[in-house]
Amino acid sequence: xxxVFSLILIVSLLCLSVSxxxxxxxxxxxxxxxxxxxxxxxxxxxxxxxxxxxxxxxLKDYYNKKGLNVELGKKGGRFIRARIYDKxxxxxxxxxxxxxxxxxxxx
Length: 107
What we know:
Elements: H1 2-18, E1 35-36, H2 52-64, E2 69-76, E3 79-85, E4 90-97, E5 102-105
Antiparallel strand pairs: 1-5, 2-3, 3-4, 4-5
């Protein structure tokens, strides 16, 4: 009986200690999972692969509306990796799919 009570106590303490852990410091995501570029339609409806210039413009337009800045990083084939900053520092790292217009957070 004492062993069962001890196990229940330990499990409940562990559950309470990790319940407040969030992946995002502000408690909300900057880029919702599977969001898309407004220049392309939903669900991968871009007609052609965007040029680097168009992709950069689309990302800057998307994040400037949220009050954030974009720094493009690695450009490899169909994907572009970018860092998203606010006034304080980095808030997200994303991958942008130039073919489908999908924006995915990898932070």
